[in-house]
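Task: sequence design from structure.
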């Protein structure tokens, strides 16, 4: 992906998120909210695992 393609994609994404934020596109707003919520839950789960998992513990290592 070239720099021009990346900038155009970022602009399109920004426009879509702005529309969703303003409530013009309710379906898009719901998808952004749901996807964002899933991402945050997965991120927090991964962060919790790093706190409770001792790196010297081999339980999660591949056999």
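Answer:
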């Amino acid at each position: 992906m070239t720099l021009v393609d990346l900038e155009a994609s970022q602009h399109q994404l920004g426009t879509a998120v702005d529309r969703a934020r303003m409530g013009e596109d309710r379906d898009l707003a719901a998808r952004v909210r749901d996807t964002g919520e899933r991402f945050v839950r997965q991120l927090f789960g991964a962060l919790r695992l790093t706190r409770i998992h001792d790196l010297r513990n081999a339980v999660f290592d591949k056999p």
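The mean pLDDT is 80.
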